[in-house]
Amino acid sequence: MKTKFLFIFTLFSSFLSLGQTTKVSNITLQQYINIEGRKMELNGAGVRTKYLFPVYVSSLYLQDKSSNPNEVLYNIDHKIVQVDIISSLITKEQFKESVKEGLEYFRESSDIDHEIDMFLSVIKDEVVLGDKFQFVAEDSVCKIFKNNKELIVIDGKKFQKALFSIWLGNKPIDDNLKDEMLGKI
Predict the structure, then answer these.
(1) Tens of pLDDT along 59-85?
(2) Of 27, 142, 164, 171, which one has the fewest beta carbons inside 10 Å?
(3) Cα–Cα distance for residue pair 101/174, rounded to 1 Å
(4) Considering its fold, how many domains does the chain have in total?
(5) Could you list the residue range(s) of the whole structural domain that residue 79 is in?
(6) 140 domain-assigned
(7) Is residue 2, in this structure, part of any structural domain at all?
(8) Residue 106 placed within a domain
């Protein structure tokens, strides 16, 4: 009887945890998401502001939580950064410029110009309030999604690390956002 109770309790708890959400600046983030059969847990999330205006919510999903940025960048092969646009002031050009700015540090130190150009070339449609981008790392591959539609697959560990370093690297786009994504705040 005790074993049956534990099984039912565990099953019930699992269903409850799958429905949990976190709200960040009016964006509802799922506690768990499944990407290609892999269950990923929300590690942390925060709001990116520019000139005092909130621009997007950025969240990090991992299979196992981590607050160590080097571990996330260099040792964890499966990770997701999700960017939810929360401002109608951001444009396609501003979004592309922000990514280019974030990757500039790595452009000088490695040969990822081709991958950066490939990535920027797929941002063709206007970026609008409510858009959701997902940057999905799987081993050496990085898949870019916009509103659940795959835009491009880029193979290259250097590009993948550079892209995720925008938020989690030694020179992140926003130190507070980095800490929030790593669950430190």
Answers:
(1) 999 999 999 999 999 988 899 999 999
(2) 171
(3) 12
(4) 1
(5) 21-181
(6) yes
(7) no
(8) yes
For residue 107, count other CB atoms closer than 10 A to its CB: 13
Residue type for position 163: L
Cβ neighbors of 128 (< 8 A, separation 6 or more) are: 85, 88
175: phi then psi, degrees, rounded to nearest 5? -60, -40
Q: Would residue 152 count as lying in a domain?
A: yes
Contacts of the segment 126-129: beta carbons below 8 A, 24+ positions apart: 126/91, 126/92, 127/85, 127/90, 127/91, 127/92, 127/94, 127/95, 128/85, 128/88, 129/85, 129/86, 129/87, 129/88
Return the half-sphere exposure (C-beta side, CA atoms, 13 A cut-off) of residue 161.
20
Using one digit for the tens of pLDDT, what is the confidence trace for 121-175? 999 999 999 999 999 999 999 999 999 999 999 998 999 999 999 999 998 999 9
| pTM score of the predicted model | 0.85
Amino acid 169 reads: G
CATH number for the domain spanning 176: value is: 3.50.70.10
